[in-house]
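Appendix B, record 7
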Amino acid sequence: MVKSVVNLGEHENRVINIVKAKYGLKDKSQALSVIIKGYEECELEPQLRPEYVKEIEETIKKGKFVKVKDFAEEYGLK
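Structure tokens (predicted):
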């Protein structure tokens, strides 16, 4: 576990306290973890998440695929 000293503004501190109260958390570090996980799920590219890689691997195993030599020609983009 990493410990950090963080300088927050009044607004950011209130937001963390709201998250802490909403989820019944013990301390602000737990609230920050919830906020970071929410950010990760919403904002990070799916390619960075291990669940995405697993989902793609399963799709490749199950999926039916069509081979295309020239994508643009096949779909009328030329």
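Remarks on this record: The mean pLDDT is 88. Residues 28-43 form the longest helix (16 residues).
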